[in-house]
Amino acid sequence: MNLLVTGRSGCGKTTVCKALTAMKMPTLDADRVKGLVGWVDRMTLDPVEVDYSQPIDTSKVGWFWVETVLQKLLTQNDDLILCGSAHNQLGYYPLFDKVILLDVSAQEQTRRIQTRTEHDYAKISAMSERVVREQAQLLASSRGLGAIIMNAERPPREIAIDIVRHLR
């Protein structure tokens, strides 16, 4: 069974991915899969560089998954929990047996973005506000597509245990 654990930045995907890995579950962080994801020009789909210290115009550029890489990854793994998010992910939901969307309050999401140390994406207020709005939109769209909505304001191991239950 292939499962997607998703949510926009600050919802806990990386932390939950680490908890699942510690439980010896077949888990990958989508951001760390070579060739799977990157910033692209939305018109040309050419790779682009972005500066996290400036607002990013996501109407012009997007964090996109590469379909061929995603399909190959899922084909080569009978059981996989992929933790990640991309601006074009909704079209790929049918490739997964289940989709779990991690959800947190806007206040908690903003706090997590501002205090993380892995990278600076969305730390400027205009971007963190945009990411919170994107999360609300993703929640509505994902719910409409049958995703399982999971409260991610709990300890990561507790969330991971709930995810494992969905595999069975």
Describe the structure.
The structure is a single chain. It contains 5 helices and 7 strands; from the N terminus they run βαβββαββααβα. It is an alpha/beta fold and 168 residues long. The protein has one domain (2-33, 79-167): P-loop containing nucleotide triphosphate hydrolases (Rossmann fold, 3-Layer(aba) Sandwich), CATH 3.40.50.300. Helix 1 (13-22) packs across helix 5 (156-167). The longest helix has 20 residues, at 125-144. The termini are close together. The mean pLDDT is 95.
Please outline the helices and strands.
Blueprint: E1 2-6, H1 13-22, E2 27-29, E3 37-41, E4 61-65, H2 67-76, E5 80-83, E6 98-103, H3 106-115, H4 125-144, E7 148-151, H5 156-167
Parallel strand pairs: 1-5, 1-6, 2-5, 6-7
Antiparallel strand pairs: 3-4
Helix pairs in contact: 1-5
Strand content: 15-25%
* Largest β-sheet summary: 5 strands, parallel
Mean pLDDT: 95
Annotation, overall tally of beta strands: 7
Write a short abstract of this structure.
The chain has 168 residues and is of the alpha/beta class.
Question: What tags apply to this protein structure?
Answer:
7 strands, 5 helices, five-stranded parallel β-sheet, 37% helix, alpha/beta, two-stranded antiparallel ribbon, Rossmann fold, 168 residues
